[in-house]
Amino acid sequence: MEITITVERPEDGPGSGPIQVGWFLTKDKNAVLYDPPERVMFRQQNRSHAKSAARCPGVIQLESRYFMVKCPFDLQIGFGRDKDGRAVLINRLGSASPVRGNKLNEMLTLVNEAEWRYPDRPTIQLSLPYCFIADELVYLTQLSPFMHYRADPLPGTIFGGRFPISVWPRPLMWAFEWHEPQKDLVLRRGEPLFYVQFEGMDPSRAVQVIAAERTAELDTYIDQIGGAVNYVNQTFGLFKAAEALRPKKLLTPKARE
Length: 257
Hints:
single chain, alpha+beta, 4 helices, 16 strands, about 30% strand
């Protein structure tokens, strides 16, 4: 699937045309659950009036810069403590849950209480296989889906993040800080889970998101940098070392079927 934002540019050659960003899944297992990222675009808007917000260039420019990743699961999770006072997650759907309990434990993690930013705000992480790459300097910013309305707001906020996918491609995760742990966390399959935004050296250039092949070189490089966060505190300090290992080309567009 290809998603393109078109901006006219008079120049040709390196640094002109759209920035190419590749996306892929780091594992094939259950790949059917994970929809391709989509450009944020609101259909069926009122465009009849010349001053409609749907026709405002500023609004259009803003919306065109964000890509949406949808939630792959239906979840309703509660927070509690066991008889020893240890923090635990509770699957409110029980046997009615679409996700089996053992699989839920594999993908949803309650962060160690000592690592919470605030003692009264539990932090959880949902592991995902989405990964983005680029062959020029591109920063990815992950943030909440602020342009989509929820009738039942989440009882907390998501952790955003920003890092260069050109040198540090890694699987994304959805991290949540539970401000109101007495309220359940409800996620629905198909609803926006988070946005990603891509920034190159020239902010006027368009962004093109394409499906990427998982080549042997790409898999090797990700293995070389993967898991470093478990051993050092400041992974950004490893960027120079990662650049020395990086193949010249990581992004190979996936052949259309």
